[in-house]
Amino acid sequence: MSLTIKLTIAPRIINLNCHERNRTKFPAIRPKPIYHSNALNPILYNNKRPGMFQASVSGTVIKSSLIEPDGGVLVDVIVPESERGSKTLEAESLPTARLAKIDVEWVHVISEGWASPLKGFMRENEYLQSLHFNSLRMENGTVVNMSLPIVLAIDDETKKSIGSSKDVGLVGPEGDLLAILRSIEIYKHNKEERIARTWGTTAPGLPYVEEFIAPAGNWLLGGDLEVLKPIKYNDGLDHYRLSPKQLRKEFDRRQADAVFAFQLRNPVHNGHALLMNDTRRRLLEMGYKNPILLLHPLGGFTKADDVPLDVRMEQHSKVLEDGVLDPETTIVAVFPSPMHYAGPTEVQWHAKARVNAGANFYIVGRDPAGMGHPTEKRDLYDPDHGKKVLSMAPGLEKLNILPFRVAAYDTVAKKMAFFDPSRSKDFLFISGTKMRTYARNGENPPDGFMCPGGWEVLVKYYEQLQAEEAMPAVASA
């Protein structure tokens, strides 16, 4: 059960800033994981019985299902098991469009309701609203946030093979039928407009653009999805990929009276932990009794020089094992979305998707979803614009935004702390690039930057990566 709550006890913007960036030129994509995660079940840490919980905070009654999904109903377009046989037979009789790996990730996102109320790949009117207004207007006049176009590109040959058919079968990269797209619409894919409005630049070197948009077809195929079975990756991490429905049930089971989400694509260092632990402290001070952290690393496409998902999940497990974060009040799960690195435009998507998962608080730090400019030595986006945009974004009014100050390494206290401008010389900023350089070179970061167990995971990954990179050179010598 879920219902809309007006949180009069907490303003939408609460001034409680994590540094997510990377300026390194990305190498070739690693073809397969070389370091496998331990199976840390994200919901093993709490033995309480399931049940609903009500708490009164400053006179306001709050249920553990704290926030309504966009559109009021969580979208689920996965075909019931009893219908899969007949739907598969139907799909085999339809013209088909082949999906790339990135398209499968978007099918996953749509199928579980992360993009609610979207029920499939965008038709043209939805695409234009998303591209130009960062939102969708519902039939009843309400507005929901939708800052990133979720579209399926096809080439001329596929368009011709579809012809006048109203339905299309979607085939995965391995040739298996994954879904049916109903009541389709085909329209022009104006790539330059899409790139310029999503990223605010058409500079060469944007990872998502170069990987997936530039080589894509000149047409977009929209329609309502029917996904034949749940998307699985069989990579040892599927148990982390909890759907919005599963997460909402787990929040209820843990009797949460607030849920605060933290998005990241990097390993968790003690600066991240500072932000998360300080958020919980502040929520407790506000009167909440059991705020639950959703530690929610991005699990879809990332730049090739970012730390791979399997390594990050192993590192996150060590953070919980070492007690940097409390397993009793933390849920670790994978957010299946691909990463655009589109700054203030993309951070709205990250926040909106967590609303659909049941989070009513969202932590935002410095330059969320940003990166270094691909051709110039500067930030691609203003580091403060992400949190400012979130505070004004249409369709996100019901979400409480928690902007944070920058966390850095305090060389006097020898720990990660909030940056104090009055003694700026005492602070060391360790970017994601610098952190990876430490690990790749076998150097240790300053004591107190990251828990030892988590750091060992990174060092081991880079040792194995370097050994793998050296193999062709040895073979050719």
How would you summarize what this structure contains?
With 477 residues, the protein is of the alpha/beta class. It has helices at 84-92, 101-112, 124-133, 156-162, 191-199, 207-213, 244-253, 270-286, 309-321, 343-357, 385-392, 432-440, 452-476, and strands at 54-57, 60-63, 96-98, 120-121, 135-137, 143-145, 153-154, 168-171, 177-188, 219-227, 258-264, 291-297, 330-332, 361-364, 400-403, 407-410, 415-418, 427-428. The protein is 32% helix and 17% strand.
Question: Can you give a write-up of this model?
Answer:
It is a single chain. This protein has 477 residues and is an alpha/beta fold. Helix content is 32%, strand content 17%. The chain has helices spanning 84-92, 101-112, 124-133, 156-162, 191-199, 207-213, 244-253, 270-286, 309-321, 343-357, 385-392, 432-440, 452-476, and strands spanning 54-57, 60-63, 96-98, 120-121, 135-137, 143-145, 153-154, 168-171, 177-188, 219-227, 258-264, 291-297, 330-332, 361-364, 400-403, 407-410, 415-418, 427-428. Strands 3, 4, 7, 8, 9 and 10 form a six-stranded mixed beta sheet that branches. The chain has a five-stranded parallel beta sheet with strand order 13-12-11-14-15, with helices on both faces. Strands 17-16-18 form a three-stranded antiparallel beta sheet, covered by helices on one side. Strand 14, helix 11 and strand 15 (400-403) form a beta-alpha-beta unit. Mean pLDDT is 88; it is low at 1-11 and 15-64.
